[in-house]
Specification:
rod-shaped
Amino acid sequence: MLNWALTFFVFSLVAALFGFSGIAATTAGIAQILFYIFIALFVLSLLSGFARRGDKMINKNL
């Protein structure tokens, strides 16, 4: 997912360089949305990993 965000970011930079402001704004918006989705999924993954580790630690103490 982060790879796609970076790809759209590079496309927006290239489009801005050549003066295609509409395309640059669109691809920059897509890159921003994908980046926020990536961050949300990353945080959810971390929380679920900590939850699983917590269950294992509780079972070891019993």
